[in-house]
Amino acid sequence: xxxxxxxxxxxxxxxxxxxxxxxxxxxxxxxxxxxxxxxxxxxxxxxxxxxxxxxxxxxxxxxxxxxxxxxxxxxxxxxxxxxxxxxxxxxxxxxxxxxxxxxxxxxxxxxxxxxxxxxxxxxxxxxxxxxxxxxxxxxxxxxxxxxxxxxxxxxxxxxxxxxxxxxxxxxxxxxxxxxxxxxxxxxxxxxxxxxxxxxxxxxxxxxxxxxxxxxxxxxxxxxxxxxxxxxxxxxxxxxxxxxxxxxxxxxxxxxxxxxxxxxxxxxxxxxxxxxxxxxxxxxxxxxxxxxxxxxxxxxxxxxxxxxxxxxxxxxxxxxxxxxxxxxxxxxxxxxxxxxxxxxxxxxxxxxxxxxxxxxxxxxxxxxxxxxxxxxxxxxxxxxxxxxxxxxxxxxxxxxxxxxxxxxxxxxxxxxxxxxxxxxxxxxxxxxxxxxxxxxxxxxxxxxxxxxxxxxxxxxxxxxxxxxxxxxxxxxxxxxxxxxxxxxxxxxxxxxxxxxxxxxxxxxxxxxxxxxxxxxxxxxxxxxxxxxxxxxxxxxxxxxxxxxxxxxxxxxxxxxxxxxxxxxxxxxxxxxxxxxxxxxxxxxxxxxxxxxxxxxxxxxxxxxxxxxxxxxxxxxxxxxxxxxxxxxxxxxxxxxxxxxxxxxxxxxxxxxxxxxxxxxxxxxxxxxxxxxxxxxxxxxxxxxxxxxxxxxxxxxxxxxxxxxxxxxxxxxxxxxxxxxxxxxxxxxxxxxxxxxxxxxxxxxxxxxxxxxxxxxxxxxxxxxxxxxxxxxxxxxxxxxxxxxxxxxxxxxxxxxxxxxxxxxxxxxxxxxxxxxxxxxxxxxxxxxxxxxxxxxxx
Length: 841
Fold this sequence. Notes:
The chain is α/β, with parallel strands linked by helices and 841 residues long. Among the domains are: 67-237, P-loop containing nucleotide triphosphate hydrolases (Rossmann fold, 3-Layer(aba) Sandwich), CATH 3.40.50.300; 722-841. 31% of the residues lie in helices and 17% in strands. The strands form five sheets. The protein has an 18-stranded parallel sheet that branches. The protein has a five-stranded parallel sheet with strand order 2-3-4-1-5, sandwiched between helices. Strands 6-8-7 form a three-stranded antiparallel sheet. Strand 7 (395-399) and strand 8 (405-409) form a beta hairpin. Helix 2 (67-78) packs across helix 3 (101-112), helix 4 (130-141) runs parallel beside helix 5 (168-179) and helix 13 (336-344) packs across helix 15 (377-390). It starts with a helix and ends with a strand. One of its GO terms (molecular function) is ADP binding. Keywords: Plant defense, Repeat.
């Protein structure tokens, strides 16, 4: 009874604080509709704004005003024929913050990467971890056979999430040995000191006469000169854009929103005024373009007044203060809820690749998002996220295989402004970040500890932590006094990728009575305490990439839980299905991902009661064909499919369960994503009725002609993958593939006139048969990815007008004929053919 009363009191305290803060932030004291600087009412959105962003895969654009320079730099990077160009060489791209260094470097990297055996891209920044950077490079240049899940990315995962299993010396030796005899390309973004470059340079092979290249970016001329000291090394200073280039960039950026209603003459006038004040700085131009695009109804003459207020004509050039003034104006133009979302970005360290889903779930848990206009809180959060993209506050850096933004970054100068503003408003307190921020003397509301070290642990000792409602840790818990946060109001605890998590920390967590969001992803834990039931307000529990194999029985009492994530994809491991799972105890559950079901699972009979479930991902399924559990699971999936299930992933390890789905009486018509892994004999007949299906992943056991003939009319299909999953497969898989090839006449012809929406086609299999694309087959296909031991060729790719890239990952066991076919394909100039040689696990 005492515990319940304490919990309710804590909940009331949190609500009272939230209401007070919202009143202050959203201006509730003023009933009149506040106008922002551009004359537009803040907080107005289109109801369907959450559907704003177009699904896409490849988003790299040619930097404006760089055509001649790009050709010169591209030629320099690709050269390796003359003896002087055989040495490893360094290109340093140097320039003012916001001038476009990273944009240029990434565009170059994308253009020439197919000319190199190995490639890697990393961001280092000022507070970097050398071993993390080296490990990230190694993971990209030495991909393993099991890494195919993430190979559509430009780089690997964020360095802060990498676990270290080898010493520094062994790491350096492995990297040097692997690169010694190969031509490699490295992009090292945002180097702040010569010392940083020197420490990385020493870890690379000392001699490599293969024409290897390193691209570095830095704000400092002296650092660039230090990086590029060699005879053929090159320093490229990035200049501000001229008037015509500025106008082109502005118009291109504005047009991306597709919401501008100006006539051509009006747009020219707006462009003229905006580009005058931006003085050729790309960041300023793009930021102002986002402002204009987000206020499509503002009269064109209004922008002239805005520009004059920002920069009187007497100001000759754009200084750092001038950039800050532009950022300040754009920030003040934001509706209140978007200002909150923007400030919240200061939680994450400089240079981070931030997960879209992680941000959205955290915003919801913090109470910054609520249902409106008939949209769910998640859809509203997506609306806010899309607005941040539209306003150029954030930029996408990776897209998932379903075409949605997977991760994003905040430009350094934008983040610097946000961190300063956040500190000024006592919204988020950052410890150990890139910028020097005065230590908070107020009560800390949200704490982000961005680097480990005793000095940062001691600095939190002097803070007033009694009102902390959000704690985010990066790297290590060693120096943090965790018990300080048992204040009864902590709602968000994010320890993703942290080292040093102990049993005592877990016990402390179970005393955080109003916790809503708990992420222990990528930590070393193996068990969850039974007292987790005390967290009765918990909505999100993330245990992915940990050694936690099951939840305690008491977890069934988490009545407000919405998202449960567990398991591991490589190697394939699942979280045992929670016991006593049913509508009464977990009626709010929307996502149940990464679970394992076997004959001992006791919660299957309750699955069909979870009528609100939107995602069910079973990483490991080991049940008997005629068992009670088999029938209960099939019945549950059929029923959930009629209730609104949108994502279904099944990894069947010999149960023959996925083949039984064909007998379902009605198709799961709400599905947008479906994965069927295992020994699949044939596709369910209802699959061609899934009009909303965007993403489809199938076992390679159905890689044959009749599969393509069944799928070709799916109207919304964006990505199609055939995969030999990391789970146990039939030992006769190669015989099955040979049989399929024979039944397809030795070649798979993609049906003409179908797959109208498909942009990504992937094959991860021991054998990929001959594939032929007739005219009008897959008319919008942009990318083909393959990983194989044996490959018989691609034919007709010249008919694929939209195809930009073919990425081949050749298994180290590939035979001579396969290697010959691959080399023959590399001679093609368009599309870009990229080849990687992967290590057999």
